[in-house]
Every structure is written in structure tokens, then in C-alpha cells.
Amino acid sequence: MIVCVAVVGHQNNPLYIQSFTEADDALKLHHIVHCSLDVVDERVNNPKKTGPLLNETFLGLLYPIENFKVYGYLTNTKVKFILVTTDLDVKDADVRNFFRRFHAAYVDAVSNPFHVPGKKITSRTFAERVSTIVKSFGLSSAV
Amino acid sequence: MVREVAESCVDSLLTEMVASYCNRFYANKPELAARRIEAIGYQVGHQLSERYTMERPRFSDHLEAIKFICKDFWTELFKKQIDNLKTNHRGTFVLQDNKFPWLERISIDPLTDKVNSAEDATTAENKATSTISMHLYYPCGIIRGALSNLGITCAVTADISNLPACSFVVRVKA
């Protein structure tokens, strides 16, 4: 289950962060997302020499912490997407698929002429779309 | 879902936008009109670059990003690529389009065609040049917006010395 997703701007400014837990642990999840930014930087500045995978937007598993796994994605425009999940057995393909759909939702949200670039995403449509994507995560039937 | 826009609509919109800004909103301040038109282009380029770079790996250097603008970005906008790219490898890139679609259907006010003297001819020509360059602030803004969203701060100007070819000069700021 996905417990938290976040969009972080190119100056490491939070653009959107949403947790999906019943418990009151937003602060803890925000902390995890915050920590992951360093790992993203590290990945980007010291890329593994793996041929065609170089500079891929999907950064893979950033780090496991407690009972969470943190995944990252960095777009061409230096916007980071962070995903925190409690599933321990996650398929890479599922995560890739999630980020692809999440990116599409993000692009649609920032294409809104009333959205100010670099400011938080307040669109309700975006929030709804994200929660749909989050709910369908891991269900192979969802495309 | 892919949504498409008719080319002629975009052409008309561009012409009308330039006309409104030059003749109505900022009739006496052409520099201000130019800045506003460029700013609209900047926003459009900023948003489009986010969309069109979605499925591709990150660019490792400036040249790669410029090549993306020349090939994929231009294809998405105009169904053609930039015809010629030159660079001095020190931050200046010249993107030449031999038949820029947004200039193809521009005509100058027929009243200015009635030339009586050599002086009139020069005035008419100057007017034509300034009208055409007004229409190029928008694409310049698009290029600047797209590049700046990809992390490249730059200045973009257009050169129309040999029409209908048109060159966009990108100067990357260090």
C-alpha cells in the first residue's frame, strides 16, 4: 500500500505532498520524503555506468527505512517524485507504471494556465487523480 | 486522449494576439508589447517542455537539450524539424528554419504597398520588418521557456535577414 507521495520542485521546494494513512503520522512521512532528497541528489550526481539506463527518469528504490520502501523519479525539468510504500514485495514494473501515470497527472496539472510554476499544486482534480492512481497501485488489471 | 488544434486556428490566434497587443493594449509602447508577447510564449514553452520530455531520459548537456528542441519539440509544434543547427560550442546556438510555418501566411497591410517614391518604399519595408519581428517574439518566448524549464537560462532572438528562412539565436547564460 502506498502511504505517501510527494512532488518536489527543482530547488527542493515541496510542490505537493499527500499521505494516505489513517494514523497521524504525516510528520514522520514528510521526514522520510525529506531524507530521500539527499539520496536522489547522490544518485543523479554519481550515476552508475549502466549504458542505456544512464539518465533514466526512474531512479528505482532509493532506500528502505523501518517498514517502508522509498522510490524516486526525476523528470527532465528536475522535478522529483517520491513514493513511500509499505509493500515489501514490490514489482519494479508496477512502480514504473505508477510514476508514468503520476507524471502524466502532474503534467496536466501544471499545464493549467492558472497554475503558477514553482508554487504548490492546489488543483482538486490533480488530488483526485492522484488518489485514483494510488488506489489502483499494484492491481495488475489497472492500466 | 490526443487533442489536436487546427493549424489555421493557431495561425489566426497568433496574428490576432500580436495585433491586439501592438495596436490596442500597448499601441504606443512596442517594447512593452514585445515583452508581453514573449512572456506568453515563455509560459507556453515552459508547459510544453514538461509534456514533451515525459517519456525520455534526462539530458546530460546543453547540446542534447538543444537537439531535443530542434527535433522532437519542433516536430510536435510544426510537424517538421529545424533545418540547420549551428553552434560555436561556447553557448551560442543558431537554429535555422528554412520555411517557418508561422511566417508563411503573414501579409502586410495592402495600403503600404502603394509605393510612390523611394522614401515610401523604405518606410514600408521598415514597417514590414517590424511587423514580422513582432510575430517572432512568441516563438522566441516558447524556445526560451522550454529551455529554462530544462535548466538552461538563455536569451533568444530571431533573425529575419533572409526570408522566408528565419533563424533563432540562442545565447546560453553561464
How far apart, in Å, are the first and last alpha carbons of chain A? 17 Å
Low-pLDDT segments of chain B: none
Structural shape of chain B: globular
* Annotated CATH architecture of chain A: 2-Layer Sandwich
Residues in helices of chain A, as a percent range: 25-40%
Oligomer designation? heterodimer
**In CATH terms, what is the fold-level topology of chain A?**
Beta-Lactamase
CATH topology description of chain B: Muramoyl-pentapeptide Carboxypeptidase, domain 2
What portion of residues of chain B is helical? 40-55%
**How many β-strand runs of chain B?**
4
Counting DSSP E segments of at least 2 residues, the number of strands of chain A comes to 5
Uncertain residue segments of chain A: none
Number of helices of chain A: 3
N- and C-termini, Cα separation of chain B: 40 Å
Shape of chain A: globular
